[in-house]
């Protein structure tokens, strides 16, 4: 993005050197470069204190530069235990969402600048758009300075200050900031053949539970972001079932702007956040493959301005390298998938590979230590990330970095 700004400025300098014959339409780039956006940016630079190793745990230090990484992702076992009480995870989530909003805003401004230069190269671009883009670049560069090596109060305050300034800036410029949540509860829709309830009743209850869980997620997002934009913040959310490509329960300021199908929801609708719910991992993976959704989610959640991916339990497993970790505890029944009724049928099944070769084993506890040690024998060191109920694995794609934060509150 910064290269685009530089290229535009270079063209403007050339135009200033060879101005248009019409004095009324000629302009001087030198007069533009000294103008300042009226929005003042203030960032707190509080001193950083060290935290204990249990607070932040790096789990990938030698990644490949050619691998596929999620732009930003949070993977966890439990929403209520891993995210809600986890100050570090919520701070990173807030940072990730605001960064996505900022990059989308920059892309929009760049398109306007490119159009103005293309159709009138020596008459100049929209001056306000140029200044706004420079301010956005400034915020973007400051956002890159956060290392997330520690997560004490000082660091979370600094990150939150940057997020607040960024959202206030964008909301001032645009008038409204829209956060789009695409909720995917497919894993919890798997039919349990051992249940005394009919398949119809099971689906009805699962949809009702999914709606409640989606509301819980939306409430946390509103709490994280609404304090910054006040009335200028709006939310749009919709539920996508990968089994039948159905979109249900749309909520938002303008339902006319909602996607028409799953493919559109994952592409042109450009969701801010994709939340993949927990449940039966094998059913989820089956529906991903059946509907050819995997590549759509990968495309949506990778790249410089990718959608923020939130994966709970099964949603975390499919984000990893090897989906067969879902068979280790024997909790998920593979027989829900036709012709793949045994755990052996899932050996070697690949997930989104959002952190290269790293796989995920959620709901870790001391009871599973021996099992995990047996399963990872012969594998590469640190090839499996075991997540306890209060832990969240955070991914920063541009840095090829993963780290785990616990739900413990930071010390003052």
* Rounded average pLDDT: 82
The largest sheet is: 9 strands, mixed
What's the tally of helices?
Answer: 12
> Which consecutive residue ranges, at least 5 long each, have pLDDT under 50?
8-54, 61-66
What is the structural class?
Answer: alpha/beta
Extended strand count: 11
How are the strands of the biggest sheet laid out side by side?
A: 1-11-10-2-7-6-3-4-5
Summarize the helix and strand pattern as letters. Answer: HHEEHHHHEHEEHEHHEHEHEEE
Outline type: globular
The rounded distance between the terminal residues' Cα atoms is 37 Å
Cα-atom radius of gyration: 23 Å
> How much of the residues is beta strand, in percent?
15-25%
Helix content bin: 25-40%
Fold and architecture overview:
This protein is of the alpha/beta class. Helix content is 40%, strand content 15%. A nine-stranded mixed β-sheet has the order 1-11-10-2-7-6-3-4-5. The protein has a two-stranded parallel ribbon with strand order 8-9. Helix 12 links the parallel strand 8 and strand 9. Helix 5 (127-144) packs antiparallel against helix 6 (153-174) and helix 6 (153-174) crosses helix 7. Mean pLDDT is 82; it is low at 8-54 and 61-66.
Entry keywords:
alpha/beta; 12 helices; 40% helix; 15% strand
In short:
Helices cover 40% and strands 15% of the residues.
């Amino acid at each position: 993005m910064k290269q685009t700004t530089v290229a535009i400025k270079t063209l403007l300098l050339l135009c200033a050197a060879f101005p248009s014959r019409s004095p009324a339409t000629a302009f001087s780039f030198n007069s533009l470069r000294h103008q300042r956006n009226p929005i003042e940016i203030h960032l707190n630079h509080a001193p950083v204190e060290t935290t204990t190793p249990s607070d932040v745990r790096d789990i990938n230090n030698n990644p490949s530069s050619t691998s596929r990484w999620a732009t930003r992702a949070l993977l966890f076992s439990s929403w209520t235990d891993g995210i809600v009480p986890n100050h570090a995870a919520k701070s990173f989530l807030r940072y990730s969402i605001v960064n996505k909003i900022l990059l989308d805003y920059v892309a929009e401004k760049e398109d306007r600048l490119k159009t103005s230069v293309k159709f009138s190269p020596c008459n100049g671009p929209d001056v306000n758009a140029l200044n706004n883009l420079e301010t956005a670049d400034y915020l973007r560069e400051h956002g890159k300075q956060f290392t997330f090596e520690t997560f004490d109060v000082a660091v979370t305050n600094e990150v939150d200050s940057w997020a607040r300034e960024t959202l206030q800036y964008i909301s001032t410029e645009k008038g409204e900031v829209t956060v789009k949540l695409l909720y995917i509860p497919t894993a919890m829709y798997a039919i349990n053949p051992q249940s005394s309830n009919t398949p119809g009743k099971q689906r009805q209850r699962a949809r009702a539970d999914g709606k409640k869980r989606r509301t819980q997620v939306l409430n946390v997002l509103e709490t994280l972001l609404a304090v910054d934009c006040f009335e200028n913040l709006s939310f749009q959310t919709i539920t996508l079932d990968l089994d039948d490509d159905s979109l249900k329960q749309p909520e938002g300021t303008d339902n006319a702007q909602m996607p028409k199908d799953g493919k559109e929801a994952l592409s042109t609708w450009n969701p801010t956040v994709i939340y993949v719910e927990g449940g039966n991992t094998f059913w989820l993976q089956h529906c991903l493959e059946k509907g050819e959704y995997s590549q759509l989610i990968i495309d949506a959640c990778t790249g410089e301005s990718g959608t923020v991916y939130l994966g709970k339990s099964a949603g975390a497993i499919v984000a990893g390298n090897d989906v067969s970790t879902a068979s280790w505890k024997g909790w998920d029944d593979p027989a829900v998938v036709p012709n793949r009724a045994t755990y052996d049928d899932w050996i070697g099944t690949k997930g989104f590979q959002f952190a290269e070769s790293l796989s995920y084993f959620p709901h870790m506890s001391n009871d599973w230590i021996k099992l995990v040690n047996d399963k990872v024998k012969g594998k590469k060191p640190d090839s499996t990330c075991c997540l306890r109920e209060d832990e969240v694995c955070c991914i920063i794609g541009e840095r090829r970095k993963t780290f785990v934060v616990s739900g413990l509150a930071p010390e003052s």
